[in-house]
């Protein structure tokens, strides 16, 4: 009787029941961005729909034909033939915009629009027998409703991860019409919830492509160096001939070829000792190898770096050697006065080069959500270690089972997209989330999912801490109950900006942890408006105050014996609706070390000089 009662208690508490394995993502289409594809970027028609008439009629149910944006009809022609026909929208004659990019910058009226926008374009296709065609989205923020030739293809929630639909049976030979409704409105049960400290760039913000593959193809492939010195390859075939299929894995430039045979579910794996000639990936030597996986008619390929990352006590080891992470935080927002979250290779290179060449960084925290694959591939190429995270940010509905499901799906989509990226060493499962039993269970479930999906990387989360006097010393104490589920502790610290600490007092603040694990300062920072000066360095928002904040905070950091890295907040100023001071902010968070247009502030050089010194003599090297 008692056991039954306990089971009832557990199952009655949403999110407290023992979690199952990570959600299955299908299709994965790993390395989709390297597959030969038809790129649908370019001109699309756009129409706003603030009251979502295109989604439902005035009493609910299917939308009236007059509002049905996705209907497969030529409205202009219909009106010419029948003057009595009633339509109250027509995407075919709506304004044309260039995708991918957020709608915020399409016009002055759109700058603050949040809600539903419809996009539509036509394209020719010529389906071939024995082939499958996937419609692939790099990301759409926040919910996407996809239609092809008037048919509902599918939906996706989550603004920063890829998704795809098999449209083989819906494609016409000749002209096709794709219509996508993107709704940027988030609710309290979404991930993230409505309130964040960054702009909601609504829209189709990454590439939309048509990917044609053989009817049985390599859907997932993950090739990595394991801590015991082996090259392991594993993945999944998908299609009618996925089972019991020969698979060949070749690592170009290493003369390494492995073979496998898929099982009844299409899963395959192979491994071999790492060849003696293997050049391990590192920031100093970001060596990438061309990897090909062949199965039947399909050849999957990616550019893969081989390295290991681990923790040893309170140290982080890269390729077995202790490393100090000299980092900086970066939002997915290109340099410029009017960014639209269009991350091209040039935009990614500009941001990451400022970190690597300008700041002498070896690490970036790509906050607060999965960034474009353009960014993570650029980090692989330039040689920067990466912290990758999902936007479990601030006040998430931790006790809601659907919210947990959404976060788990987002984490799996992120890891399955990027686990071939050597640059990524950390998966983060949250940022500054208020401690509660429900929150700690929620994040522990995510940490467990991350480990099951990828046992080769480290798990972390940006946490909060608290202050107390210990033996008369002002001490920051780290004792978050989530830490046992993490490999690396990370804390956001703003002493000297938020609160009343004087800058001069910062170096005397001590740090203590209940757990012996490596610590990263996942954020620290102060704001400054570029060009605003106060020689006394006492006025917040002056460049001098920000620079002095960095000098004093870095002195404090050098004294923390288990500190193994930092990613100050943040490389450049970024749009935030929460920052509306008319003189200093005007809708921008000004904690950047440079302005939104890349004008470096005095603090930039303070950090750069410190990182240059730490390059050869990192803190704690002698400890
Ligand atoms: C928080 C948060 C950031 C935010 C920053 C700030 O730590 O993680 O997203 O922008 O502080 O206050 O500027």
UniProtKB/TrEMBL annotation:
InterPro entries named in the record: Beta-gal/glucu_dom_sf, Galactose-bd-like_sf, GH, GH2_Domain-Containing, Glyco_hydro_2, Glyco_hydro_2_cat, Glyco_hydro_2_N, Ig-like_fold
Domain of life: Bacteria
Stretches assigned to the Glycosyl hydrolases family 2 sugar binding domain: 95-214
GO molecular function, one term: hydrolase activity, hydrolyzing O-glycosyl compounds
Entry annotated with the keyword Lyase: no
Keyword terms, alphabetized: Glycosidase, Hydrolase
Biological processes, Gene Ontology terms: carbohydrate metabolic process
Entry keyword annotation includes Hydrolase: yes
Signal peptide (from-to): none
Residues in Glycoside hydrolase family 2 catalytic domain copies: 309-552
Pfam families: Glyco_hydro_2_C, Glyco_hydro_2_N
Similarity annotation: Belongs to the glycosyl hydrolase 2 family.
Protein name: Beta galactosidase jelly roll domain-containing protein
Record organism: Stakelama marina
């Amino acid at each position: 009787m008692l056991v039954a009662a306990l089971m009832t208690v557990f199952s009655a508490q949403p999110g407290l029941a023992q979690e199952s394995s990570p959600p299955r993502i299908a299709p994965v289409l790993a390395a989709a961005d390297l597959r030969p594809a038809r790129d649908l970027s370019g001109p699309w028609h756009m129409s706003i729909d603030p009251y979502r008439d295109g989604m439902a009629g005035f009493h609910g149910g299917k939308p009236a034909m007059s509002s049905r944006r996705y209907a497969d009809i030529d409205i202009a022609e219909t009106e010419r033939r029948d003057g009595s026909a009633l339509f109250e929208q027509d995407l075919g004659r709506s304004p044309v915009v260039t995708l991918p990019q957020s709608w915020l910058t399409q016009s002055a009226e759109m700058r603050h629009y949040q809600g539903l926008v419809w996009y539509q374009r036509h394209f020719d296709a010529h389906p071939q027998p024995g082939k499958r065609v996937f419609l692939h989205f790099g990301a759409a923020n926040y919910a996407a409703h996809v239609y092809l030739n008037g048919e509902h293809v599918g939906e996706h929630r989550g603004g920063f991860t890829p998704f795809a639909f098999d449209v083989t049976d819906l494609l016409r030979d000749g002209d096709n019409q794709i219509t996508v409704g993107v709704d940027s409105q988030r609710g309290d049960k979404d991930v993230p919830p409505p309130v964040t400290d960054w702009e909601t760039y609504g829209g189709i913000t990454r590439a939309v492509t048509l990917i044609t593959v053989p009817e049985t193809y390599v859907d997932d492939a993950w090739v990595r160096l394991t801590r015991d010195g082996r090259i392991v390859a594993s993945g999944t075939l998908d299609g009618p001939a996925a089972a019991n299929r020969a698979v060949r894995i070749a690592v170009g430039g290493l003369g390494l070829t492995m073979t496998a045979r898929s099982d009844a579910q299409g899963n395959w794996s192979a491994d071999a000792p790492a060849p003696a000639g293997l050049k391990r990936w590192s920031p100093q030597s970001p060596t990438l190898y061309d990897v090909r996986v062949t199965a039947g008619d399909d050849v999957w390929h990616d550019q893969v770096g081989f390295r290991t990352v681990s923790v040893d006590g309170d140290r982080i080891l890269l390729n077995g050697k202790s490393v100090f992470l000299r980092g900086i935080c970066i939002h997915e927002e290109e340099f410029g006065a009017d960014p639209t979250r269009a991350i091209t290779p040039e935009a990614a290179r500009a941001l990451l080069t400022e970190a690597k060449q300008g700041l002498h960084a070896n690490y970036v925290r790509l906050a607060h959500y999965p960034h474009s694959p353009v960014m993570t591939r650029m980090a692989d190429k330039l040689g920067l270690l990466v912290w990758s995270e999902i936007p479990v940010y601030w006040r998430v509905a931790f006790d809601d089972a659907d919210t947990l499901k959404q976060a788990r799906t987002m984490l799996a989509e992120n890891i399955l997209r990027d686990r071939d990226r050597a640059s990524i060493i950390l998966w983060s499962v949250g940022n500054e989330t208020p401690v509660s039993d429900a929150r700690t269970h929620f994040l522990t479930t995510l940490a467990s999912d991350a480990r099951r999906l990828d046992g080769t990387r480290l798990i972390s989360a940006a946490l909060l801490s608290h202050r107390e006097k210990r033996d008369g010393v002002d001490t920051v104490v780290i004792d978050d109950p989530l830490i046992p589920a993490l490999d690396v502790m990370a804390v956001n610290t703003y002493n000297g900006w938020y609160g009343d600490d004087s800058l001069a007092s910062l170096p005397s603040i001590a740090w203590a942890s209940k757990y012996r694990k490596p610590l990263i300062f996942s954020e620290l920072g102060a704001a400054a408006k570029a060009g605003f000066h106060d020689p006394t360095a006492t006025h917040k928002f002056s460049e001098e105050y920000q620079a002095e904040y960095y000098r004093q905070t870095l002195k404090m950091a050098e004294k923390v014996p288990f500190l193994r890295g930092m990613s100050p907040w943040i490389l450049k100023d970024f749009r935030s609706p929460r920052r509306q001071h008319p003189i200093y902010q005007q809708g921008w968070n000004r904690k950047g070390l440079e302005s939104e247009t890349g004008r470096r502030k005095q603090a930039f050089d303070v950090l750069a000089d410190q990182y240059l010194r730490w390059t050869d003599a990192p803190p704690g090297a002698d400890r």
